[in-house]
């Protein structure tokens, strides 16, 4: 039976959800669950809840709890990564420093200044972890739940670790679209492809019939005002909670997988000033503020209270399904971020892309999509540039590449000059230096006179 190691075992609630999902499958009851975190107190708190879950359902599952990375990695078959390097303190720098410069990220964990810096911190920890994985368990599968998914997954692939990045945007949005069209979800099928948090529903069918024209018609009518559609005399208004994604659909022809608040960060059109943000998103959603107000102890207590009250059933998260499929050979289709080995032919080969992936005893088999629709590919390439530059900056320590990565963010470029971007990046580097390597540029642009003469 497999050993499953939760990297970031002390994280807020999510590790408990993953363990519950794993134990929902009888074939995994004899597994070993390893809770690993550098924060012993938080790790022990969640491990105690896991022990109560195992005992409450009288399962034979073994529990291992450790703060030692090598002990955690040894003999592991599957990793589930849920950490946030630097915790809420670092996250505060990610969002609050850019806000000083007028860049209001409602989440700031995927792309743009906040996402890039979270990725840099994550990659520092993942580099050390990857070395141990290649030494102790090179055949293992690393399941990445920590954002920024595209940066983390691209980095882990570069480090030589078999990995898949997982999110729940596809599951949530696919249900939302069926509801918007008034169709029963169980009779619908779809294909999504792109980058994590920026993938596209390039096909949606009801009982095998293409309903993309219906989707476009319904979403335009529900979420865009008359003036937005070009009819004179109508006042511009918010138009509903999915106005942002419907505008993106009108631009590209296809619906975006991530939520409207989150998606609004990734393009230049929706967050240029507070009035514009309020117009597009009348109900402010600030994930940093939500995280600051988390009552972790209460959530753990509620998790424990539910033990034994209902049958163990998996959530819609893909992680446990992948582990069960590889263990038993059950064929399943999931959507995840994997190396682009030909899946999307008009996005770079060195980046992780989110596509349909078949999973069974043979492992992960990403599906070939071909070209993304042209406008979708154009939007995703802007994001891919950030990802590739951020990963390269992490691996080289080149500060100029980091400036370039942040400058490629459409919203940042729309609001700031290049000198302002450099100033903001420098301020973020200074604030977060305890989690990051020294970014000493080796390029001719920033080399000293003495270094140039020497060269």
Q: For the CA atoms, what is the radius of gyration?
A: 22 Å
Number of helices: 19
Q: From the 3D coordinates, which CATH architecture of the domain at 3-96 and 106-167 and 297-333 would you assign?
A: Alpha-Beta Complex
Reading off the top of the CATH hierarchy, the class of the domain at 3-96 and 106-167 and 297-333 is best stated as Alpha Beta
- The spatial strand order of the largest sheet comes to 3-2-1-4-5-6
> In terms of structural class, how would the helical and strand content be classed?
alpha/beta
Overall morphology = globular
Distance between the termini: 57 Å
Strand content: 5-15%
CATH fourth-tier homologous superfamily of the domain at 3-96 and 106-167 and 297-333: AglA-like glucosidase
Structure summary, number of beta strands:
13
Mean of residue pLDDT?
92
Helicity, as a percent range: 40-55%
Largest sheet: 6 strands, parallel
Brief summary of the model shown:
The chain has helices at 14-23, 40-56, 69-73, 87-100, 112-136, 149-158, 169-181, 212-223, 243-252, 260-263, 274-280, 287-292, 296-305, 319-328, 374-396, 399-407, 410-415, 418-431, 449-454; strands at residues 3-7, 32-36, 62-66, 78-81, 141-144, 163-165, 188-195, 198-206, 209-210, 255-256, 332-339, 352-360, 363-366. By secondary structure, it is an alpha/beta fold.
What does this structure look like?
By secondary structure, the protein is of the alpha/beta class. It has a domain at 3-96 and 106-167 and 297-333: LDH C-terminal domain-like, CATH 3.90.1820.10. The chain has helices spanning 14-23, 40-56, 69-73, 87-100, 112-136, 149-158, 169-181, 212-223, 243-252, 260-263, 274-280, 287-292, 296-305, 319-328, 374-396, 399-407, 410-415, 418-431, 449-454; strands spanning 3-7, 32-36, 62-66, 78-81, 141-144, 163-165, 188-195, 198-206, 209-210, 255-256, 332-339, 352-360, 363-366. α1 links the parallel β1 and β2. It is globular, with a radius of gyration of 22 Å. The termini are far apart. The model is unreliable at 227-239 (pLDDT under 50).
């Amino acid at each position: 039976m497999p050993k499953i190691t939760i990297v970031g075992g002390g994280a807020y609630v999510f590790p408990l959800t993953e363990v519950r999902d794993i134990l929902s499958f009888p074939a995994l009851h004899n597994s070993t669950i390893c809770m690993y975190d550098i924060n012993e107190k938080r790790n022990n708190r969640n491990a105690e809840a896991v022990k109560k879950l195992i005992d409450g359902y009288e399962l034979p599952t073994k529990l291992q709890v450790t703060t030692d990375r090598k002990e955690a990695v040894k003999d592991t078959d599957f990793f589930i990564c849920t950490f946030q390097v630097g915790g809420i303190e670092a996250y505060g720098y990610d969002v609050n420093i850019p806000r000083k410069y007028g860049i209001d990220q409602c989440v700031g964990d995927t792309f743009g200044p906040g996402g890039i810096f979270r990725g840099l911190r994550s990659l520092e920890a993942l580099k050390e972890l990857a070395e141990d994985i290649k030494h102790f368990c090179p055949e293992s599968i690393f399941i990445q739940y920590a954002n920024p998914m595209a940066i983390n997954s691209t980095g882990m692939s570069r480090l030589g670790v078999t990995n898949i990045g997982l999110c729940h945007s596809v599951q949530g949005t696919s249900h939302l679209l069926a509801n918007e069209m008034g169709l029963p979800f169980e009779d619908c099928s779809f294909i999504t492809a792109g980058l994590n948090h920026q993938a596209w529903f390039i096909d949606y069918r009801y009982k095998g019939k293409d309903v993309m024209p219906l989707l476009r018609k319904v979403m335009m009518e529900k979420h865009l005002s008359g003036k937005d559609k070009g009819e004179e005399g109508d006042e511009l208004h918010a138009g509903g909670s999915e106005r942002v994604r419907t505008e993106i659909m009108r631009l590209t022809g296809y619906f975006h997988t991530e939520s409207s608040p989150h998606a609004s960060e990734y393009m230049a059109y929706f967050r240029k000033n507070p009035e514009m943000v309020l117009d597009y998103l009348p109900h402010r959603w600030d994930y940093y503020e939500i995280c600051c107000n988390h009552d972790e102890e209460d959530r753990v207590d509620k998790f424990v209270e539910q033990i034994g009250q209902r049958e163990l059933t998996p959530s819609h998260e893909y992680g446990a399904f992948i582990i069960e499929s590889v263990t038993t050979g059950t064929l399943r289709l999931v959507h995840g971020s994997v190396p682009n080995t030909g899946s999307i032919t008009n996005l770079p080969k060195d980046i992780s892309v989110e596509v349909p992936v078949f999973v069974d005893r043979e492992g992960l088999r990403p599906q070939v999509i071909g070209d993304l629709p042209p406008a979708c590919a154009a939007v995703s390439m802007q994001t891919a540039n950030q990802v590739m530059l951020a990963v390269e900056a992490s691996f080289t320590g080149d500060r100029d590449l980091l400036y370039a990565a942040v400058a490629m963010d459409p919203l940042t470029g729309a609001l700031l000059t290049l000198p302002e971007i450099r100033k903001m990046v420098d301020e973020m580097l200074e604030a977060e230096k305890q989690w990051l390597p020294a970014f000493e540029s080796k390029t001719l642009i920033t080399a000293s006179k003495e270094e140039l003469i020497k060269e």
